[in-house]
Design brief:
Distance between the termini: 42 Å
Shape: globular
Strand order of the largest sheet: 9-8-7-10-11
Strand content: 5-15%
Number of strands: 11
Number of domains: 3
């Protein structure tokens, strides 16, 4: 599975660089920095006027078309999507991921079920025609697209097709659900599977599936919402649903708490090296960050250029998370972080996500497009703690001592929330004692 992840990262990186290849005055990198699709469209049309399309640049121009089609689809503009896709431009690995994200959002809206069914079916057919064992991105997205298509068909009453496609999705080997890379891979699958089961009249099986998902923290708010609906179908009313959900969530949290507690750092001195077992299996340790200065010595700019001094946060539990815009599991973690920030908004607590390696303009554009509400700092040269792996979060106590660190995405929005909440609560408890 690690080899698959390496292949995926290499393919995404290569594809991204390929998309940024300059086209004389106009290039994809500048285009991608533009936040609004309306302004992107203006940019593209100017490019066509000043540098007309011909055989030498059609392939690259099609990258712009797919991006525009995807962004217009995200706004619910089906006509624009069809306009830019009418020449059947090739969909790259990165573009396929982005398009799949949009379909996952739209399938939650009953007004777009037919268009989701149509587009996902076309993409499924294309992937199945072209895919092979080395097409990691294709395999991962095929699994999700089959789920999305199944959910759309279930909601539209096409139960036989829904059951067929959810089963096909379940049978795909080396899919994305177990690797904790894409946001809520397993939680979304359980949610869609339960929706299909319920549409097929198997409400009890659907409820059992959702209950186990919440109990094991393979859940997110959408899945919990579905659990409430299915519970009412099974029991005839929703009495008892709140207690069931609360009990399951408390059970899941306690399990994560006990696991997190094992990793509390009782003795923390600077310099401090955060390590994990070497992923190669050599038995040695691999350094994921190197803290050479105390937390309160750190100063970093926010995205507006204002200097943020960690010294100003004495007396607060401070969490920092290192990330990049190209790191899919980094961004997947943010939904769980946002829940923690909301819960501790009236307490002495602060969380910063610190982008490394990238230019400020790139980060600002990404934040605006994704609507990320977290407090973002910028460390383009990665000088703070020489981070070697992302996502990489560090929790400091109220005196600025490192008490926890953790790399990787937890795998679901709820589990990410539980884990970080447990780190905060344990740190608070240790402070009191």
């Amino acid at each position: 599975m690690n080899k698959l992840l390496i292949c995926l990262l290499i393919m995404i990186t290569c594809s991204s660089w390929g998309q940024q290849e300059a086209i004389k005055k106009y290039n994809y990198q500048d285009f991608n920095l533009i936040v609004k699709v309306e302004d992107q469209e203006v940019y593209f049309n100017k490019m066509l006027q000043e540098e007309p399309e011909d055989e030498s640049n059609t392939k690259l121009y099609n990258v712009f078309r797919v991006a525009l089609a995807t962004d217009w689809l995200a706004k619910g503009n089906i006509e624009k999507y069809r306009y830019y896709m009418q020449t059947d431009p090739e969909v790259s690995g990165v573009s396929l991921i982005n398009l799949t994200y949009v379909l996952q959002d739209l399938v939650e809206d009953e007004n777009y079920l037919n268009i989701v069914k149509e587009i996902s079916k076309r993409l499924i057919d294309d992937i199945e025609k072209k895919s092979n064992d080395d097409d990691v991105i294709g395999i991962f997205q095929l699994q999700v697209l089959l789920e999305v298509n199944a959910m759309a068909n279930a909601e539209l009453g096409n139960v036989d097709i829904a059951l067929k496609n959810i089963q096909k999705s379940s049978e795909i080997k080396d899919g994305a659900r177990e690797i904790k890379y894409f946001k809520d891979s397993k939680a979304n699958y359980y949610n869609r599977y339960a929706i299909v089961l319920s549409a097929a009249g198997e409400d009890k099986k659907a409820l059992d599936t959702l209950v186990e998902a919440v109990r094991n923290a393979d859940s997110n708010p959408k899945l919990v919402k579905t659990l409430r609906k299915v519970y009412k179908k099974v029991h005839g009313n929703d009495k008892g649903a709140d207690k069931l959900i609360t009990d399951l969530q408390e059970e899941a949290y306690e399990k994560e708490y006990k696991e997190v507690e094992k990793h509390y750092i009782a003795e923390s001195t600077i310099p401090f090296e955060g390590t994990i077992p070497d992923p190669s299996g050599s038995g040695e340790s691999f350094a994921v960050f190197n803290a050479t200065k105390h937390a309160y010595e750190i100063s970093l700019p926010d995205l507006n250029g204002n200097t943020i001094n960690f010294n100003d946060y004495k007396g607060k539990i401070l969490v920092i998370d290192f990330w990049t815009t190209a790191c899919t599991p980094c961004v997947a973690s943010f939904a769980g972080f946002e829940q923690v920030v909301a819960e501790y908004k009236n307490e002495p607590f602060q969380l910063f996500v610190i982008d490394i390696f990238e230019e400020q303009e790139t980060v600002k554009s990404f934040i605006a497009k994704k609507g990320i509400s977290l407090d973002v700092l910028h460390d383009e040269d990665n000088e703070t703690y020489e981070v070697a792996a992302t996502p990489n979060k560090i929790v400091f106590d109220t005196k600025g001592n490192i008490r926890f660190y953790s790399i990787a995405y937890a795998g679901s929005t709820d589990r990410e929330y539980y884990k970080l909440k447990a780190m905060v609560e344990i740190t608070k408890a240790k402070n009191k004692s």
